[in-house]
């Protein structure tokens, strides 16, 4: 079986790497804060002190970090992955990042004989824990098929969307849909509370109808018990919306709903709530 490297052990990365270990893969891990990887190391993962050392030892490298600048540094920096991965290996960036950066990494990888896929995900901490992530992939078909068994361990909806960068564009579509939906489901609960209804009963009634959505089913129940822990950080959602807004501007496309959502979440970040989950949008109203 292929040796897999996993860089970025965060809210989702720990569960994803754990699934690969349970499936029998030899997994090498690196994250900036080693303590985040302790559970994985206890279950047989190998720790590497530097990302470059990890890259030299694996057949498939998976990265899931915070921001496009982190991706650029890891792949294209002087000590980047593309200078250390073996020819014939495959790099999969599952960070939500810039489509143009994904294309640049793929092009440079091809020059070095390294296959590259951009494969951002949706489903948050719940999808990562359950192995039911939606994985949106950009890259070449032959590379995709080679690592499809790995994707199958991590997700339940795995679709090759097109050439390099297509996975990132698809994730932008996903985030645009979520942004306005989060406003809608949050305002719905605020209305229910204000009029004196029992929000939990209301949620039961509307979740199975036309108003139903993933956010309504999975995030609003957290709101009702004042659980604002991050399945997905506000700071990362703001980053994603910023990428989508930038891409839309380049296309001459106006997305007023997305711009409104970004402003609302930025207000929460300015209040010191950037480390909370996206369901904390209700605090904008309260």
UniProtKB/TrEMBL annotation:
InterPro entries: 6-PGluconate_DH-like_C_sf, 6PGD_dom2, 6PGDH_NADP-bd, HIBADH-like_NADP-bd, HIBADH-related, NAD(P)-bd_dom_sf. The active site is at 171. Keywords: NAD, Oxidoreductase. Residues 165-285 form the 3-hydroxyisobutyrate dehydrogenase-like NAD-binding domain. SUPFAM superfamilies: 6-phosphogluconate dehydrogenase C-terminal domain-like, NAD(P)-binding Rossmann-fold domains. Pfam families: NAD_binding_11 (PF14833), NAD_binding_2 (PF03446). One of its GO terms (molecular function) is NAD binding. It comes from the Bacteria. Transmembrane segments: none annotated. Gene3D superfamilies: N-(1-d-carboxylethyl)-l-norvaline Dehydrogenase, domain 2 (1.10.1040.10), NAD(P)-binding Rossmann-like Domain (3.40.50.720). Residues 3-159 form the 6-phosphogluconate dehydrogenase NADP-binding domain. Belongs to the HIBADH-related family. This is NAD(P)-dependent oxidoreductase. It comes from Listeria immobilis.
């Amino acid at each position: 079986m292929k040796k897999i490297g996993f860089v970025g052990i965060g809210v989702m990365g720990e569960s994803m790497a754990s699934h690969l270990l349970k499936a029998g893969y030899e997994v090498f891990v690196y994250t900036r804060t080693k303590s985040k990887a302790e559970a994985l190391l206890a279950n047989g993962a190998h720790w590497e002190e530097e990302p470059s050392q990890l890259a030299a030892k694996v057949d498939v490298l998976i990265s899931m970090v915070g921001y496009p600048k982190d991706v650029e540094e890891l792949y294209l920096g002087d000590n980047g992955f593309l200078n250390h991965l073996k020819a014939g290996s495959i790099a999969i960036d599952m960070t939500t990042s810039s489509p143009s950066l994904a294309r640049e990494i793929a092009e440079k990888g091809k020059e070095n004989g390294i296959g590259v896929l951009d494969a951002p995900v949706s489903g948050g901490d719940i999808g990562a824990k359950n192995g039911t992530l939606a994985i949106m992939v950009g890259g070449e078909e032959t590379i995709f098929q080679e690592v499809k068994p790995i994707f199958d361990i991590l997700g339940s909806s795995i679709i090759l969307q097109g050439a390099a960068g297509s996975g990132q564009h698809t994730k932008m579509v996903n985030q645009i849909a979520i942004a306005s939906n989060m406003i809608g489901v949050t305002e719905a609960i605020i209305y229910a509370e204000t009029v004196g209804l029992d929000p939990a009963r209301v949620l039961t009634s509307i979740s199975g109808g036309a108003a139903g959505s993933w956010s309504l089913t999975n995030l609003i129940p957290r709101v009702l018990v004042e659980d604002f822990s991050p399945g997905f950080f506000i700071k990362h959602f703001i980053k994603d919306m910023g990428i989508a807004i930038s891409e839309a501007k380049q296309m001459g496309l106006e997305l007023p709903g997305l711009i409104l959502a970004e402003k609302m979440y930025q207000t929460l970040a300015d209040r010191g709530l950037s480390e909370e989950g996206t369901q904390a949008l209700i605090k904008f109203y309260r």
